[in-house]
């Protein structure tokens, strides 16, 4: 179907669903959000083609909007994990089942290839199958990660989802699901080990003189800088290490 004929037919659908989508996300009621219905094959086929032909294709009339959404990711990092580089747009509600939102800009989220693969076509129809939505779920001002040292020699560490003060049961269920389904412990632990190894080299110069004050000062500086992003794994880690006497007084060598 030509674009000129398609838009008058689907525009009222897109506008109506945009309003419903926004209301559901603001009320944290996505688990009850209905899957898209269709009349014959018209709506699904044409809405999906509108996405692939007019947003994704470089020749599409809405390609600039696609590029704008890609570029909206803070620091060019995936807003789902805050670590990896954005590579594509993801349908937060999968377009296969929520096809009426195939071109809804609220449903198009920048994402990295790792999170995109982990998320796949997960249906957010239960509390333990949700993901944080970067346009609606702002937990950047709170710490929702815990850092745990499981073993001291050699160091083994782990990150866990924690419940921030004042967060509802439903919001915390979303945090836990997001953390688990995107395998963020694996990602953050891997990155943390690299940083701890770098710190080992930095702190080794203080070891012979038992200069633990300098070690603590370095850690405090890292904590201060990471406090700008309280939802980061760095903030969770340095919040613990700054008060960990074992680590400060030589435990850093056990990487």
* Rg computed from alpha carbons, rounded to a whole number of angstroms: 22 Å
As a percent range, the share of helical residues equals 40-55%
Mean pLDDT score, rounded?
92
Structural class: mainly alpha
The secondary-structure element order is HHHEEHEEHHHHH
- Number of β-strand runs: 4
Main sheet: strand order: 1-2
The separation of the N and C termini measures 61 Å
Question: What can you tell me about this protein's structure?
Answer:
With 255 residues, the protein is mainly α. It is 47% helix and 9% strand. The chain has nine helices and four strands. The protein has helices at 3-26, 42-56, 63-71, 113-119, 169-181, 184-207, 212-226, 233-241, 245-248; strands spanning 88-91, 108-111, 145-152, 155-161. It has a two-stranded antiparallel sheet. The longest helix is centred in the N-terminal third of the chain and has 24 residues, at 3-26. The chain is elongated. The mean pLDDT is 92.
Brief overview, please?
The chain is mainly alpha-helical. The chain has helices at residues 3-26, 42-56, 63-71, 113-119, 169-181, 184-207, 212-226, 233-241, 245-248, and strands at residues 88-91, 108-111, 145-152, 155-161.
Features:
255 residues; 9% strand
SSE inventory with pairings:
Elements: H1 3-26, H2 42-56, H3 63-71, E1 88-91, E2 108-111, H4 113-119, E3 145-152, E4 155-161, H5 169-181, H6 184-207, H7 212-226, H8 233-241, H9 245-248
Antiparallel strand pairs: 1-2, 3-4
